[in-house]
Design brief:
Blueprint (H helix, E strand, L loop, with lengths): L1 H23 L10 E2 L1 H6 L4 E2 L5 H19 L5 H4 L4 H31 L1 H4 L8 H18 L1 H11 L5 E2 L7 H28 L1 H6 L23 H13 L6 E2 H17 L14 H10 L10 H6 L5 H11 L1
Parallel strand pairs: 3-4
Antiparallel strand pairs: 1-2
Length: about 325
C-alpha cells in the first residue's frame, strides 16, 4: 500500500512540475502571432484570430461556439428565431440535442449489435435485459439530460470568458505540447473521477441521496447500454466535474475538450453492456459489472490504474475462478 501511495505522490509531483514548467517557460505561448478561427478554416475565409491571451482572444471562442450552434440547431430552429435566443441558452440547447442524439444512437446501435446480431456469442446463457429495466433507464436518463448538458455549457462559458487555460488552435502550442496536455488532462480526469466516484460510495448520505439511483441496476440482466447515463442528475454532474476543473489546471485544446466530454456518453454505454472486452489496463464492462455487484471495487473510469494504486481493483478473472469454485 505504501508503495502505491508513493507512486501516486511521485506521479502528482511530476505532473505538477511539467505543467508549471510549461507555463513558466512560455511553452503555452503562440508559436507565432497568427492563428485562425475554426469557422474561417471551414469556410475558407482564413480570418485571423487575435494572439493568445486577453479579452479579445477569449471572445474569439464565442464565434467558434456560435458556429457550432448554427450547425447543430439549424434543422430545429430558424435563424431568425435563434437570433433572439441568448448565446448561453443556444449552447445549452445545442448540447442538449447533441446529448440526446449520442445517447440514443450509441445505446440503440450497441443493443442491436450485442442483443440481436451477436446475441448467441455474447450471451449464450441468456441474461439479456428485459424491456422494463431498459425503459426505466431511458426515463431516468431523459429526466437528467437537461442538467447533464448544463455542465458542458458552463465550461464553454468559462472558456469564452477567458477564465480557463483553454487554447483555440493546436498551432498555438505545437503538436508535442498538445499531446502532452491531453495526457496530463486525462490523468487528471481519471484521478478526479476515481475519487468522486469512490466518495459517492464511501460517504453514505451521498450514496443514499444520489448514487443509489444508478445502483438499482446491479445484475447482468438489468444492466444495459442505456444504463450509462441513468443517474441522479447531480450524481452525473459531480462525476463529470473533473472534465471542467481540469480546464483550470491543464492547458487544453477547446474542441478536443468538447470531443472528450461527449465521448463520455459513448464510453458509459460501453461499460454497461456486461461484455468482457479483455483489453489490458482498460476499465471495461467486465470490471464495471463487478463494481455494480460488489459496490466496493473498480471505481476507476477509463483505466484500472487508480484502483490498482489504491487497492480497490478486482480482476474479472478472479471473479470467474470464485464463481467456478462455488458452482
Amino acid at each position: 500500500m505504501m508503495l502505491r501511495v508513493g507512486l501516486l505522490l511521485l506521479g502528482l509531483i511530476a505532473a505538477t512540475l511539467v505543467v508549471v514548467s510549461a507555463l513558466t517557460n512560455g511553452k503555452v505561448e503562440p508559436e507565432s502571432n497568427v492563428s485562425y478561427s475554426f469557422e474561417s478554416l471551414v469556410d475558407g475565409t482564413l480570418e485571423r484570430k487575435p494572439a493568445r491571451g486577453g479579452a479579445e482572444y477569449a471572445q474569439a471562442f464565442v464565434k467558434d461556439t456560435a458556429w457550432i450552434n448554427s450547425l447543430i440547431l439549424y434543422p430545429f430552429v430558424t435563424p431568425s428565431f435563434r437570433a433572439t435566443i441568448p448565446h448561453f441558452l443556444q449552447s445549452w440547447l445545442r448540447n442538449y440535442i447533441a446529448g440526446i442524439f449520442i445517447y440514443f444512437a450509441s445505446g440503440a446501435l450497441w443493443c442491436l449489435w450485442v442483443y440481436y446480431f451477436r446475441k448467441d456469442y455474447y450471451f449464450p446463457k441468456g441474461n439479456i435485459p428485459t424491456k422494463e429495466p431498459i425503459k426505466m433507464q431511458i426515463i431516468v436518463s431523459m429526466k437528467a439530460m437537461p442538467l447533464y448538458t448544463l455542465l458542458p455549457s458552463l465550461s464553454e462559458h468559462a472558456i469564452e470568458k477567458g477564465w480557463t487555460r483553454a487554447f483555440s488552435e493546436i498551432s498555438e502550442v505545437g503538436w508535442p505540447n498538445y499531446v502532452m496536455y491531453i495526457i496530463l488532462y486525462m490523468c487528471f480526469v481519471e484521478f478526479g473521477i476515481y475519487w468522486m466516484h469512490r466518495g459517492l460510495h464511501d460517504i453514505k448520505p451521498l450514496y443514499k441521496l444520489l448514487h443509489a439511483t444508478h445502483h438499482i441496476y446491479n445484475k447482468e440482466n438489468t444492466m444495459s447500454p442505456f444504463a450509462g447515463l441513468a443517474f441522479n442528475p447531480f450524481d452525473g454532474i459531480l462525476q463529470a466535474c473533473p472534465h471542467v476543473i481540469g480546464l483550470f489546471v491543464v492547458p487544453m485544446h477547446f474542441f478536443t475538450h468538447l470531443f472528450l466530454f461527449f465521448c463520455e456518453a459513448i464510453w458509459t454505454t460501453n461499460i454497461h453492456d456486461c461484455i468482457d472486452g479483455n483489453v489490458f489496463a482498460i476499465m471495461g464492462a467486465a470490471y464495471h459489472t463487478i463494481h455494480h455487484t460488489t459496490y466496493r471495487h473498480n471505481y476507476g473510469h477509463y483505466t484500472v490504474f487508480m484502483d490498482w494504486l489504491m487497492g480497490t481493483l478486482r480482476d474479472p478473472e478472479e471473479r470467474k475462478l470464485k464463481d467456478e469454485k462455488s458452482s
